[in-house]
Each structure stands twice: as C-alpha cells, then as structure tokens.
Amino acid sequence: MTAAPEMTVASLILQASPVVQAVMAILVLASVVSWGIILQRAGTFRRADSLSRDFEERFWSGMDMRQLHDQINHTPNPDSGCENLFRAGFQEFQRLRDKQADADAIMQGVSRALRISLSVEQGKLEAQLPFLASVGSTSPYIGLFGTVWGIMSSFLGLAKVQQATLAVVAPGIAEALIATAIGLFAAIPAVLAYNRFSARSNSLLSRYEIFAEELSSILHREAHAHHAVR
C-alpha cells in the first residue's frame, strides 16, 4: 500500500487551480504593496512629527519672525507641516502689507493662505491611506472567493470518482482555505495600520490647526499695530 504524498503549503499552492492561484497572487501583491506603504507612512509621520516639534520650539523661542522666515527659506524642511504653514501665512502677510493693504484685507489673505496650506498638509498625511483601507476591507472577500471556488472545484472533481474519500477531497479544500488565510494575512496589517495612521493624522492635523490659529492671532495683532502706527 503506497503512502499518500505529503501535502505542504507550497505544494498545495503550486497544485491549486488557475483561478485560486490568481486570487493568491493578487492577495500577495496587495500585501507586499501594503507593507511598502506601511513602512513609508510610518517614516513620514515620524519625520513630520519630529520636524514640526523642532520648528515650534524655534517659533516660540522669541526669534523675530522675519529672521525665522529667512532661515527656513535658506534650509527648508518640506515635511514639517508647521513650517509650511508659517511660510504660507507669513509670505502672504508680507506680500499684502508691502502693497499697503488694510489690516482686514491682510488677515483675510493670511487666513486663505493658511486654509490652503492646511488642506495641502492634510493631503500629504492622508496619502495612500485609502489603499490600506481598501486592502483591509476587500482582501478577506477576495480570499473567500478563492476558497469558494476551490471547494466548488473539489466537489465537482469528487463527483467524477467512484469512491469518495477524505483523501480525495482534502487537497482541494486545503488549497482553497489557503486563499482565505492569505486574504486575512493581507487584511489584518492593513486595517491595523490604517487605524493607527488615521489617528496619527488627526493628531498632527489638530496640532497644525492650533498652530495656524496662534500664528493668525500674532499676525492679526501685528497687522493692526502696524496700521495704528501709520
């Protein structure tokens, strides 16, 4: 009596039907891309947080804003959200004041520049997060499709044999279940990363909004003080 060939995960994947193999390939590709995004986003959030904290320390150190503006233009850090907000708001403030605009017009321009800069920073922080959400929500269903297809193929093959045994149907069911496992393997890290990055994005955006409000208040006082002197 010959022993049944040993089943391994690799052999089951190689012997799977083309449809199940295609499903597995899609899920593996989605997982690889997800991990690339996770690593890239983790570095982006870490850098944005560190650079923004450093800039806020410089901003609140009492340095003259014109001097600070000249420094950041000389050595810019585009990943620092607070620095980008300051640059956008202060440049608009200087531009309108040089045109001898009144204080209200200056502050309207500053507010508009800060809103646009905030939208840009929000786009940077939330970039590629929808892909993680899509992978997290669809991968289990894609894997389930592969499982259903594999089990269906196994039972169709079972109908063609005279003696139905577990050994006949087991390989097909096992290869089908691998598709579900790969789907979960792709989905779970994507969901966890999406939730984590969404929370960090909201936290950073809250800091940016507070900084923008404080900067607007400072510029508001300076604009009115400048016109009072005139």
From TrEMBL:
Q: Which residues form a coiled coil?
A: none
Any one annotated GO CC term = plasma membrane
> Looking at the keywords, is Transmembrane present?
yes
Q: Does the keyword Cell division apply?
A: yes
Q: One GO biological process from the UniProt record?
A: cell division
> What membrane topology is given?
Multi-pass membrane protein
Q: What main location does UniProt list?
A: membrane
Q: Which Pfam families match?
A: MotA_ExbB
Record-stated family: Belongs to the ExbB/TolQ family.
HAMAP family the UniProt entry points to: TolQ
Question: Which NCBIfam families does the entry mention?
Answer: tolQ
Q: What is this protein called?
A: Tol-Pal system protein TolQ
Q: What is the lineage of its organism?
A: Bacteria, Pseudomonadati, Pseudomonadota, Gammaproteobacteria, Moraxellales
